[in-house]
């Protein structure tokens, strides 16, 4: 047996084409979805993520701008800028690129963004809405993973989903989304003993650890669907995930690759949230 490859990049491309049509339609009605990204400092990885978001926005016709602020920007200055953007009717989505310099409290920043413009889906109000199964901005990576599973007709209801990793941006919310879809969910993390006891019973295995080859053939149940969220840069500069792809490919029924897997879907979900924010705001005319 060998797995079907869940091609995130192809799926993202298809979704972006559909979104372009929707954006065109909105523009004809006089609504131009707009995303503002705030970048603090000059972290090269953050810069590259921000460039990717700007490029993808442009490809779908969403307008965007990047506000670059120096590394010594105070928390007060940043919160003031966010307040201005909250009050700016032409801005539909606000994203502050994380991580932030140590002197700025990330949580204060997340909570300062209006929940109606929180396209990252990190505001506690939106997290609460997600947990209670209400319509909201879903966090981008978890929502991308769910979209990948659904697009490939992976059955979720009644299945055992095992999540490895419990970060607030990936592990915890993706487990919640799968629970909302009626999976039985188990969380594993750095303090889990006998990881293999859990992973080997997983029908759906989501791996978000950040270590190459953390998951190997022996961890997998025959026929499982495996989603690799990890992004690890090797010494030769290439990117790899957390899963030993070649070995697991032979045993799983579905597997997502790295690169061209979850990564492109994350940005695509950000665009989807921006369009949603624009439509929501237009309705309430705020
Ligand atoms: P993190 O880096 O904050 O934490 C890692 C998690 O792995 C923790 O919850 C920890 O408990 C768990 N862990 C560590 N060692 C473990 C072990 N031996 N056994 C079981 N669990 C273990 O997590 P994150 O921010 O969710 O990132 C995880 C990975 O996903 C990173 O490689 C990151 O770059 C990547 N990532 C990718 C995307 C994307 O769009 N593709 C988005 C976010 C994160």
UniProtKB/TrEMBL annotation:
<dbReference type="Pfam" id="PF00763">
    <property type="entry name" value="THF_DHG_CYH"/>
</dbReference>
<keyword id="KW-0486">Methionine biosynthesis</keyword>
<keyword id="KW-0554">One-carbon metabolism</keyword>
<keyword id="KW-0028">Amino-acid biosynthesis</keyword>
<keyword id="KW-0378">Hydrolase</keyword>
<comment type="subunit">
    <text>Homodimer.</text>
</comment>
<keyword id="KW-0368">Histidine biosynthesis</keyword>
<dbReference type="GO" id="GO:0004488">
    <property type="term" value="F:methylenetetrahydrofolate dehydrogenase (NADP+) activity"/>
</dbReference>
<dbReference type="Pfam" id="PF02882">
    <property type="entry name" value="THF_DHG_CYH_C"/>
</dbReference>
<keyword id="KW-0521">NADP</keyword>
<dbReference type="GO" id="GO:0035999">
    <property type="term" value="P:tetrahydrofolate interconversion"/>
</dbReference>
<dbReference type="GO" id="GO:0005829">
    <property type="term" value="C:cytosol"/>
</dbReference>
<protein>
    <recommendedName>
        <fullName>Bifunctional protein FolD</fullName>
        <ecNumber>1.5.1.5</ecNumber>
        <ecNumber>3.5.4.9</ecNumber>
    </recommendedName>
</protein>
<comment type="similarity">
    <text>Belongs to the tetrahydrofolate dehydrogenase/cyclohydrolase family.</text>
</comment>
<keyword id="KW-0511">Multifunctional enzyme</keyword>
<feature type="domain" description="Tetrahydrofolate dehydrogenase/cyclohydrolase NAD(P)-binding">
    <location>
        <begin position="139"/>
        <end position="279"/>
    </location>
</feature>
<comment type="function">
    <text>Catalyzes the oxidation of 5,10-methylenetetrahydrofolate to 5,10-methenyltetrahydrofolate and then the hydrolysis of 5,10-methenyltetrahydrofolate to 10-formyltetrahydrofolate.</text>
</comment>
<dbReference type="InterPro" id="IPR036291">
    <property type="entry name" value="NAD(P)-bd_dom_sf"/>
</dbReference>
<feature type="domain" description="Tetrahydrofolate dehydrogenase/cyclohydrolase catalytic">
    <location>
        <begin position="6"/>
        <end position="120"/>
    </location>
</feature>
<dbReference type="InterPro" id="IPR020631">
    <property type="entry name" value="THF_DH/CycHdrlase_NAD-bd_dom"/>
</dbReference>
<feature type="binding site">
    <location>
        <begin position="165"/>
        <end position="167"/>
    </location>
    <ligand>
        <name>NADP(+)</name>
    </ligand>
</feature>
<dbReference type="GO" id="GO:0004477">
    <property type="term" value="F:methenyltetrahydrofolate cyclohydrolase activity"/>
</dbReference>
<dbReference type="InterPro" id="IPR000672">
    <property type="entry name" value="THF_DH/CycHdrlase"/>
</dbReference>
<dbReference type="GO" id="GO:0000105">
    <property type="term" value="P:L-histidine biosynthetic process"/>
</dbReference>
<dbReference type="GO" id="GO:0006164">
    <property type="term" value="P:purine nucleotide biosynthetic process"/>
</dbReference>
<dbReference type="InterPro" id="IPR020867">
    <property type="entry name" value="THF_DH/CycHdrlase_CS"/>
</dbReference>
<keyword id="KW-0560">Oxidoreductase</keyword>
<comment type="pathway">
    <text>One-carbon metabolism; tetrahydrofolate interconversion.</text>
</comment>
<dbReference type="GO" id="GO:0009086">
    <property type="term" value="P:methionine biosynthetic process"/>
</dbReference>
<feature type="binding site">
    <location>
        <position position="231"/>
    </location>
    <ligand>
        <name>NADP(+)</name>
    </ligand>
</feature>
<keyword id="KW-0658">Purine biosynthesis</keyword>
<dbReference type="InterPro" id="IPR020630">
    <property type="entry name" value="THF_DH/CycHdrlase_cat_dom"/>
</dbReference>
<dbReference type="InterPro" id="IPR046346">
    <property type="entry name" value="Aminoacid_DH-like_N_sf"/>
</dbReference>
